[in-house]
Amino acid sequence: MTDRAVSSTLNYVLSLGIMAVLVTGLLSAGGGFVEDRQEEVIRSELEVIGQQIASDVQRADRLVTAGDGNQEVTLSQSLPERISGTGYRLSLETGPPAELVLRSNDPEISVSVRVQTTTHVAASNAGGGTVVVTYTSSDKLKVTND
């Protein structure tokens, strides 16, 4: 009669052990999947932001070209300060062609967007938030934070 009590208890403990192993396996496998998806989302958001800033740089270039370079141009755009829970930086690098490089902090992901301009570009950096594209007659196109 006492063997039946041991059998039920042993069966219960074994079932809990097997469930714990299965849940642990699922969580570890799912964790890698979530990290991969997060990196894809960050890369996609960086590409969108890069295209928006590249568009502003090219628009400023057209304004400078139309005005024969004798005026000041300032274009500002409000962007998210963080994407998918991480910060990012963007840098405008001289070319030709000029290139806008965006880098996230954690995980470290880099995206490049080419920018075609006729106006000279200054190597410059900005972070998330309000990004300003400027040109003065004595300077070059550059990106900064407000």
Automatic annotation (TrEMBL):
Domain of life: Archaea
InterPro entries (UniProt xref): DUF7266
Alphabetically ordered keywords of this record: Membrane, Transmembrane, Transmembrane helix
TM segment ranges: 12-34
Pfam families: DUF7266
Protein name: Uncharacterized protein
